[in-house]
Amino acid sequence: MAGAPQSEVNSFVLEILPLSCSSSKIFRGTSRKPMTAIRELAIFLALILFPASFAFAQAQRGTLVKGETIRVSPSADSPKLGQAERGHELVIIDSSRDFTHVEAILREPRKDADEDDPEAEGKTITGWVANKALVTMSTPNGDKIIYGEASNSEDEASRRRGRRDAAQDAMRLYYRVYDLFPTSPLAAEGLYRAADIRWQMDRADVMTRPSAREREAYMRGTIDEEWMKLVIKKFPGTKWADLAAFHLIENKLCGDWQGASKCPEKEAETYEKYAKEHEQSPAAPEALYDAAWRQSALIEIYRTEGNQKKAEEAKGRALAQAQKIVSQYPQSEWTLRAQTLIFYIQQGVPTFGNATD
Predict the structure, then answer these.
(1) CATH (residue range 61-136)
(2) pTM of the model as a whole
């Protein structure tokens, strides 16, 4: 799996003379004009302070839409160094007619890894890859080509006997659309879809741990939020930012309510707040439904706690939120589920607890 998103990769090395040598060269002699010395000093300081990121930005980069072997030299008969898969970041060093010399970043350093973890430092191989499946920043319609293969890989991952690691391929490819073509109309969606796949894979891992059943959210594992937050930062005000914000709610949910009212109260409030702040979000009707369902669950929970007044208040809030879905989002699939929820509440059918079995 790809690691945390990074900026550009440096393929240039600035060689600067040692300070002692440079200083002696710039200031040697007494007959030199003052302005010459000042100008040379300015050049020297510019070399030292020159932002490396600017040099990185000049590097031509690309990725593969099909896996390719990394070889020692530009020949199909050359010894193999490794394998670059779909979506791996490639920094272009040189090229020939049929091959390109690249620095392939096969595994980025993990910020959360222990020092003794072999994956902490990442993995990079420098060698030659065939040009056939290479898409670079200068490839015409490169963003569309990469996005199309990302979609193919995502579809492959959903199949029962799909290609191994197809989900990781899709995640890397979607991210490359944003990374290589940040001004593309597909950049925001590409970054979100990459973040979504990463979220799902990370979530599956978190939810298999024993701590997933802990009552308080802070007591269980946290799904990595970095890419979702990047979507919100880079593309504010878009539906992709709205969807990313909806995902982040999951890290605030309790693992197990344990039959107490505290968790559903807090969660209902969180979902209602999201729906109010993101009314145009594709996830707004789902957020309202999540809030309404929790209020319906509180009806039974409050009754078990002997608080009939709060049970009636929860019933009123649940009906109001469900009705809001029906009136504001009539075309949403959540409207049908809201209609069912309204029926259950009005008929006194419990939506939480043993009585729902």
Answers:
(1) 2.30.30.40
(2) 0.79
